[in-house]
């Protein structure tokens, strides 16, 4: 199971991709618009939509020509995402308050999920084809660690915020995991020459602290449930997230250089 997750175009990885996309934006967007209810209705619709969309896109992957490029993945992803939200509205009352927003969000999430399915397929095929020409087993390198930044961000945010309830913990977990993606872009998969630069480390940590502070605004409606100022906790969470991804990125770069 875990080895198949290293191959980003595998069925397990596709379901993880769908769950990450749908859970992230099904929670982030309502929070941005001031949603203060429990997260469970949001989580329910996200999981159902993710599973259904991945089944549709994977089973019809080649007929829909998703293997041809990101544009096809984004097109069919957006269409299926919007259609699933429209069809599911009668079953999920959480969408009734802002139906247009949910429809737009479904289309956006679907586009992202579809595009990533196409990208992962093409990127993995290139790695595997190159390995086959050399008579070697495919090695996915740093790409095999694509889920690590989500974990770093989620754990850093939980550690910094110490949420007092399961619902708040889920919100913090999701925002932290999504923040880990940005941290990975800045440090985990950044140019290797940055990895040995103390100046770049300081710049990245400063940027991470600022972004963490900004991300904490998503929790503004829950300010009274935290043990301290949420924006201070956000800065600490961002600092820890970017520090963890930077150090892990440097470790992977050094390992690859020795290989």
Features:
2 domains; mainly alpha; 259 residues; single chain; 10 helices
Please, could you describe this protein's structure?
With 259 residues, this protein is mostly helical. The protein has two domains: 2-142, no CATH class; 147-258, no CATH class. Helix content is 73%, strand content 0%. The protein is built from ten helices and no strands. The protein has helices spanning 2-6, 11-32, 40-59, 70-88, 99-133, 148-161, 166-188, 192-195, 198-215, 230-258. It is flat, with a radius of gyration of 19 Å. It starts with a helix and ends with a helix. The model has no long low-confidence stretch (mean pLDDT 91).
In short:
By secondary structure, this protein is mainly α.
Q: Helix/strand/pairing class, anyone?
A: mainly alpha
The helix content, as a percent range, equals over 70%
- The CA-CA distance between the termini, in Å, is 25 Å
H/E topology pattern = HHHHHHHHHH
Q: Which oligomeric form is depicted? A: single chain
* Number of contiguous helices: 10
- The average pLDDT is 91
Largest sheet: none
* Whole-number tally of structural domains: 2
Spans of at least 5 consecutive residues whose pLDDT stays below 50 are none
List the helices and strands and how they pair.
Elements (H helix, E strand, L loop, with lengths): L1 H5 L4 H22 L7 H20 L10 H19 L10 H35 L14 H14 L4 H23 L3 H4 L2 H18 L14 H29 L1
Helix pairs in contact: 2-3, 2-5, 2-7, 3-4, 4-5, 6-7, 6-10, 7-9, 7-10, 9-10
């Amino acid at each position: 199971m875990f080895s198949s997750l290293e191959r980003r175009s595998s069925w397990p990885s596709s379901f993880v991709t769908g769950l990450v996309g749908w859970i992230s934006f099904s929670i982030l967007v309502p929070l941005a618009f001031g949603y203060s209810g429990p997260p469970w209705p949001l989580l329910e619709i996200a999981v159902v939509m993710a599973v259904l969309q991945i089944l549709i896109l994977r089973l019809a992957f080649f007929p829909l020509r998703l293997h041809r490029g990101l544009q096809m993945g984004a097109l069919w992803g957006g269409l299926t995402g919007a259609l699933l939200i429209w069809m599911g509205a009668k079953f999920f009352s959480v969408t009734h308050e802002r139906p247009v927003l949910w429809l737009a969000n479904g289309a956006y999430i679907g586009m992202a999920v579809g595009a990533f399915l196409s990208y992962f397929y093409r990127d993995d095929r290139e790695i595997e084809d190159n390995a086959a020409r050399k008579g070697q087993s495919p090695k996915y390198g740093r790409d095999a660690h694509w889920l690590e930044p989500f974990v770093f961000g989620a754990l850093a945010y939980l550690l910094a915020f110490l949420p007092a309830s399961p619902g708040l913990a889920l919100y913090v977990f999701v925002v932290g995991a999504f923040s880990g993606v940005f941290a990975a872009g800045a440090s985990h998969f950044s140019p290797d020459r940055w990895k040995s630069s103390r100046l770049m480390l300081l710049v990245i940590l400063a940027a991470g602290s600022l972004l963490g502070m900004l991300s904490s605004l998503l929790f503004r409606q829950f300010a009274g449930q935290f043990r301290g100022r949420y924006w201070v906790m956000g800065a600490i969470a961002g600092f820890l997230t970017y520090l963890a991804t930077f150090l892990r990125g440097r470790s992977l770069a050094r390992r690859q250089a020795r290989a």
